[in-house]
Amino acid sequence: MKKYDNIISTGCSFVLGANIQDSNDNWVGEKYRFSKLLSDYYSAKEYNDSVPGSGNERILNTIFNTYQELKSQKNLFIIGLSGITRELFFTNNREEYFDIHAHDLLDEEVRFKKLGTKLFGSDYDIEWIKKWRYLNLKYFYNYNEARTILQRNILFLDGFFKSRNIDYILFNSISDDIDEIKKDINYFSFNIKDGKSYPKTDHTKTNSSKEDDTWYHYLRLRQEEINPDFNNKVYRSSKPEYGEWFCGGHPSPNANKDLADKLIKKINVL
Q1: Which position among 3, 61, 91, 253 has the lowest Cβ density within 10 Å, counted as fewest Cβ atoms?
Q2: Segment (H or E) for 125
Q3: Which residue from 72, 65, 58, 71 is spatially nearest to 11, judged by alpha carbons?
C-alpha cells in the first residue's frame, strides 16, 4: 500500500464537505468528507484547503502554496476542479483575493451588493459595480480562452509534479472543461455515458454537455435511481440524508465514501 505523510485536497465546496450536518444542524463535513477518509486509510495527515465558491485559478494557486509548505515530505494531492466561469480577482484596497462567477451576477441585486462589499467594504456605488461587471463580461471574458488557459495551467502542474515524483489525482467536481488533455494527466474519470443533460451547478445559465464527466453529474444519476423525479430545485434544497447522494446541494457522506473507495483504487496504481 502507498505511504504518504500528507494528503492534500483542494477544490470548492464539493471537496470541502459543505452542508454535511448532524441532526442538530451542526456542520460535520470534516468527519465524512472523502479527504478525511483517504487520510485515515493511508494513516496520513489531512490537509483540506478548499474554499466554497473557489474557481480553478484559486485552486491551482493553493496547490503551489501548500507544496511550498510541505515539499520536504511525501505528499499526495487530490484536486477537484470547479466551474470555469468562476474568476479570481485581487482588490488593492482590501489586499485580498476573491472569486466571482462570470454570469450569476447579472440582474441579481443581492449578489451585486455582496460583490461591492468584497471590493470596498461598506463604501461603494452599486451602479458602478453593475457597470464594471457588464463591461468585464462583454469585453474581457471568453469561455474558449478560459478553457485554453485552464488546460495549459493543468499541463504545467502535471509536469511540475511528475518532475518531482509527486503523486496527484485530478477530477472534475462540477464542470468538465479539460477533455482534450485528460489522457495526458493523472485524471480520474467517473465513466459517465448516460446521454443526459443537466443545468450546471455554477450558475452559467447553460446546460452541461451530455457526457460531462463530473462528480455532480455522476451523483445526479445515482440520486435519480432512488428518486426519478429528482430535479434541480430538489437538489438545491435537499436535506442531509445519509443514505442518499446529495445533502443541501452538495455530496452527502454516502457520496464521499463512494468517491474515497474509487480514489483508493486509482491511488494504488499511481
Answers
A1: 3
A2: none
A3: 58
DSSP letter assigned to residue 27: B
Cβ density class 172-186: b for 16+ within 10 Å, e for less: bbbbbbbeeebeebb
- Delineate the domains of the chain, giving CATH numbers in brackets: 6-87+146-267 (3.40.50.1110), 103-140 (no CATH)
User: Distance between CA atoms of 34 and 29, rounded to whole angstroms?
Assistant: 9
CB 119 within 8 A of CB 129: yes
Q: What is the pLDDT of residues 50-107, one digit of tens each?
A: 999 899 999 999 999 999 999 999 999 999 999 998 888 777 776 777 777 765 555 5
Q: How far apart are CA 10 and CA 163, in angstroms?
A: 21
Quick: pLDDT tens for 220-257.
Answer: 888 888 877 776 666 665 565 545 898 888 999 999 99
Q: How much is the pTM? A: 0.87
Centre a 10 Å sphere on the Cβ of residue 243 and count the other Cβ atoms it contains.
8
* Phi (first) and psi of residue 206, to 5 degrees: -130, 160
CA gap 77, 9 in Å, rounded: 6
E strand or H helix at 146, and its extent?
Answer: helix 143-163
74, 166 Cβ separation under 8 angstroms: no
Residue 93 CA to residue 215 CA, distance in Å, equals 37
Distance CA 96, CA 101 (A): 17
Integer distance in angstroms from the first to the last C-alpha of the chain? Answer: 11
